[in-house]
Amino acid sequence: MKKLPLLFLLLILVQTVKGQDDLLNELEKQGPTEGDYTFATFKGSHIINGQSVETRRKGELEFIFSHRFGLINEGAYKLWGLDESVTRLGLEYGLTDRLGFGIGRTSVDKTFDGYVRYKALRQKDKGAPVTVTAMGTVTYKTLPNEDDDPVLASELKAEDRLAYVAQLMIARKFTTKLSLQLNPIFVHRNTVDQDVENNDDLALGFAGRYKITRSIALSAEYTLRLNAKENQPPDYVRYDAVGFGIDIETGGHVFQLIFTNTLGMFERYTVTETYHNFFDGDIHFGFNISRSFQIAGKK
Questions:
Q1: CA nearest 213: which of 1, 3, 18, 15?
Q2: What's the rounded Cα separation, in Å, for the pair 105 and 107?
Q3: Residue 32 and residue 175: Cα distance in Å, rounded?
Q4: 5-294: CATH superfamily
Q5: What whole-number distance in Å separates Cα of residue 224 and Cα of residue 239?
Q6: Which residues, in sequence order, are CB contacts of 4 under 8 Å at separation 6+?
Q7: pLDDT tens, residue by residue, 153-177
Q8: Average pLDDT, stretch 274-282?
Q9: How far apart are CA 136 and CA 189, in angstroms?
Q10: 241 with 183: CB under 8 angstroms?
Q11: pTM of the predicted structure, to 2 decimals
Q12: CA–CA separation, 175 vs 28, rounded Å?
């Protein structure tokens, strides 16, 4: 809990930055009006490492390419982390304006993920004060295989490699510039070393986004682990995931520069396997690029 002042830092940043009017589109310019739902609480389905309340429109396909480099504090010999990298390729499709599904593959543990999200409640002036989206995810870790470690690979069954995530994203767009989100997260891993890890982990995510100009915004995330085991051996110490981003909107693209302490781009990793401490300077540089395509006709 002592790290929660990071949230206050975000709020101070919001109050001190002097932005320009957001002219990106009329929906954001006007904000919610009587009888209208709030749109574009966040610009994409992901904020930094975590998810947002946003769903894709019916027939819309979002392509997400994420990249994380090594630690910046590794110095010049490793080009401040640029010698190392992990990636995630993802797709998300809108079955309706409120229901969608996604798939992805991350080089971390050679992990596949699939998820479904549903926007259960939409913020509306003179109505619901927040937007609420529910999401369920399944991940499958393919590392190791027989080439990596034939003994361990032979001992692992398919169910040992599975993990499940359930989360609820609750967000409010306060103005055309400021959006904040809270999301409780539950992670279940089928197989762990129960002496030092939990099968079930709980976390609480905090996130925010603040528009500076029509095309630039600042974003931040903090994932607070709620039931981490104490007095763990050094090799099993995990930390709260922290991230800061600079979002640059260019037409149909959103390009985001990221500074974070986790290599995970899916919740099983960010909640349970973040090995580095942001506040000790263990920070990875990275980026997200998303592009949306309307591949089916709108109603």
A1: 18
A2: 7
A3: 9
A4: monomeric porin ompg (2.40.160.40)
A5: 9
A6: 222, 224
A7: 888 999 999 999 999 999 999 999 9
A8: 95
A9: 14
A10: no
A11: 0.84
A12: 9
